[in-house]
Amino acid sequence: MRDTTPQIEQYLHRRYCALSGVERLVMGARMFETARALALAFFPPGLSQQEIRRRLCERFYGALAGRVYRARVGHGVRLCIFVAERAGEASVRMTA
Fold first, then answer.
1. Residues in a beta bridge with 89
2. Does the structure show a pLDDT above 90 at 11?
3. Which of 44, 45, 73, 80 has the most CB atoms lying inside 10 A of its own CB?
């Protein structure tokens, strides 16, 4: 579904291309922080930090997060997940 006219899409494309790399990075980071804050607002109170991390990961990465958490959580390992999308295929690198 497209709700944006081609003229507006072209205008936005030109505006985004005119931004520096740092400006685009800051824009993306702010959007991520907004999405994170919205997700956190719907979690029930009193969750542990580990459960908050698990739920955030699940919210953002779906089934992929479930596979990673089943593989590593419970072994006392601190988990960091990096997801990179390439050609429609996600890859995950886990670090302790």
1. 86
2. yes
3. 73
